[in-house]
Write a structure and sequence with these properties.
- The structure is a single chain.
- α2 packs across α5, α4 packs across α5 and α8 packs across α11.
- β4 and β5 form a beta hairpin.
- It contains 12 helices and 7 strands.
- It has a 3-stranded antiparallel sheet with strand order 4-5-6. A two-stranded antiparallel sheet has the order 1-7. Strands 2-3 form a two-stranded antiparallel ribbon.
- It folds into 2 domains: 153 residues, Peroxidase, domain 1, CATH 1.10.520.10; 131 residues, Peroxidase, domain 2.
- By secondary structure, it is mainly alpha-helical.
- The structure holds 20-OXO-protoporphyrin IX containing ZN(II).
- The site of 20-OXO-protoporphyrin IX containing ZN(II) has 24 residues, from α2, α7 and β2.
Length: 308
């Protein structure tokens, strides 16, 4: 008989995680929310929880679930991610044995798979900080208004290569920008709840047609609007929304080293899926060292996790 919660001091087993994953799968369908799925915002939650990592100081990363605290959760870069955390709250209540840090990262892998993407290897054992003392400083996440140098500055700090930067950016196949969160507006692909390599294809397909626009808030982004679709069918209210790219997305085709990978991933979805699975798994593991029980060493600053 499998235990339904981990033994004291141990990370959950695969069997113990099955009902947690099933509960995440069951909440993905959200007809009233965005494009009908919680999946994209869950992927962004995991990314922002991990993307604070700094390899020089070995600080930040997905361990600790610091976004529960104002210091990290209130970072304007994390605007909107309270929705993702709220979607997962019932799962945490149902399975108190899983730490928030494990739940947020696990949920993203479940979402990627359910949206048609690859199986991302994932290991549990993260613990949650008891206070905000070890929460990383703000300002470590990328700014979409910038370019290739900025992407390298941010992602090299985490230990990623140019190829890995491009593969990770392929997550922009999912979801959308929200004016009231980042200030940018719109989606990258037509079906933003289906994981694919469409983002890379569109970057190249509409090269030269991506039009730089300045939004009312002063931010600049690139848009592609099919004129016929934008006009709408005679008598129909529904208008095509158009697609968008951030300045950082566009830098992936203007920078020759990035571009080589955009071309490979646009041409070969299997290659993209393999590379994305590997690099997303790497992202979720940044800064994590497990002990013999699979539990993440976290000094004494532990509120929650695998001790009960
Ligand atoms: Zn994103 N991302 N991102 N990203 N991202 C947004 C949305 C989403 C950048 C960025 O500025 C933005 C990665 C990398 C980078 C997702 C996943 C991943 C938004 C819109 C912005 C502005 C936020 C909003 O308004 O709601 C920049 C500059 C990046 C540097 C390369 C990586 C890496 C990701 C995962 C592996 C996802 C899934 C979304 C959609 C969220 C949603 O709510 O729909």
């Amino acid at each position: 008989m499998p235990q339904d919660a981990p033994a004291p001091g141990a990370a959950p087993t695969a069997e113990q995680l099955e009902p947690v994953k099933a509960a995440v799968r069951a909440l993905l369908h959200q007809p009233e929310y965005d494009d009908g799925s919680a999946g994209p915002v869950l992927v962004r939650l995991a990314w922002h929880s991990a993307g604070t990592y700094c390899k020089e100081t070995n600080t930040g990363g997905s361990n600790g679930a610091g976004m529960r605290y104002e210091k990290e959760g209130g970072d304007p870069a994390n605007a909107g991610l309270q929705h993702a955390r709220a979607f997962l709250e019932p799962v945490k209540s149902q399975f108190p044995f899983i730490s928030y840090a494990d739940l947020w990262t696990l949920a993203a892998t479940v979402a990627v798979a359910e949206m048609g993407g690859p199986a991302v290897p994932w290991q549990g054992g993260r613990t949650d900080y008891a206070d905000d003392a070890k929460v990383p400083p703000r300002g470590r996440l990328p700014d979409g208004a910038q370019g290739a140098d900025h992407l390298r500055f941010i992602f090299y700090r985490m230990g990623f290569s140019d190829q890995e930067i491009v593969a990770l950016s392929g997550a922009h196949n999912l979801g959308r920008c929200h004016g009231d969160r980042s200030g940018f507006e719109g989606k990258w692909v037509n079906n933003p709840t289906r994981f694919s390599n469409q983002y890379f294809k569109l970057l190249l397909k509409f090269e030269g047609e991506w039009k730089k626009t300045t939004l009312a808030n002063g931010l600049q982004q690139f848009v592609y609007v099919d004129e016929d679709l934008a006009a709408g069918e005679e008598g129909e209210g529904e208008k095509e929304e158009g697609l968008m790219m951030l300045p950082t997305d566009m830098s992936l085709i203007s920078d020759p080293k990035f571009r080589a990978w955009v071309e490979k991933y646009a041409a070969d979805q299997d290659l993209f899926f393999r590379d994305f699975a590997a690099v997303f798994a790497k992202l979720l593991e940044l800064g994590i060292q497990r002990d013999a029980q699979g539990r993440v060493a976290n000094e004494e600053n532990v509120e929650d996790g695998y001790r009960s």
